[in-house]
Design a protein that fits this description.
With 182 residues, this protein is α/β, with parallel strands linked by helices. The chain contains 6 helices and 7 strands; from the N terminus they run E-H-E-H-E-E-H-E-H-E-H-E-H. Strands 4-3-2-1-5-6-7 form a 7-stranded parallel β-sheet, sandwiched between helices. Helix 1 runs parallel beside helix 2. The longest helix is centred in the first third of the chain and has 16 residues. The protein is globular, with a radius of gyration of 15 Å.
Length: 182
């Protein structure tokens, strides 16, 4: 099955080189397997790496671009969807996606991940959500979600909707399994 894969990741450039390698490898996998990348649309940081690699591998690239950042939209985008707010950007990406992937990122990435999880849970539209948990980056999030279940603040069936993948090969295998089994 061909999928639209939303990728959340850092727009920063001063991060570890292996983060960029993973973004390029993910983009290459998306493009070479005929999938479509849905992402924040800008030529910045890991967004640049994943979009360039997807397009280079022959994939479609859907950029969800804020109007106030239009001048930074990525030339690899095959489609640009313009929005005026971050809320619209998240909503548009969630609506376009069949699956979600979070690479290394900061609070913006975390916001996008939590928004996708909340939307899927509220509307009971489970879509796979994979977090590249390099060196335990997202371990505190997993711990917090489990604690919320323990305290009765979150339904236990929400937990399996988030997959913490320790390596990019693990994440790519999970995406491959999903595209075959759906």
């Amino acid at each position: 099955m061909v999928m639209n894969i939303a990728v959340y990741c850092s727009a920063r450039t001063n991060i570890a080189p292996e983060c960029f390698n993973d973004a390029r490898e993910l983009g290459e996998w998306i493009g070479s397997n005929g999938h479509t990348l849905v992402y924040g649309g800008l030529e910045m940081g890991l967004m640049d790496a994943v979009a360039s690699a997807t397009r280079l591998a022959g994939g479609k690239v859907v950029g969800v671009v804020p109007w106030n950042r239009k001048e930074r939209q990525h030339p690899a985008n095959t489609t640009n969807l313009y929005v005026t707010t971050l809320h619209e950007r998240k909503q548009m990406m969630e609506e376009q996606a069949d699956a979600f992937v979070a690479l290394d990122g900061g609070y913006g990435t975390l916001d996008e991940v939590m928004s996708a999880l909340a939307s899927m849970s509220f509307f009971d539209e489970p879509k796979p959500l994979f977090l590249l948990n390099r060196d335990g980056l997202y371990d505190p999030l997993g711990q917090m979600l489990r604690e919320m279940v323990t305290r009765g603040l979150m339904f236990p069936e929400v937990l399996p909707r988030v997959s913490f993948c320790p390596t990019l090969p693990h994440l790519l295998n999970s995406l491959s399994d999903m595209s075959v089994n759906v």
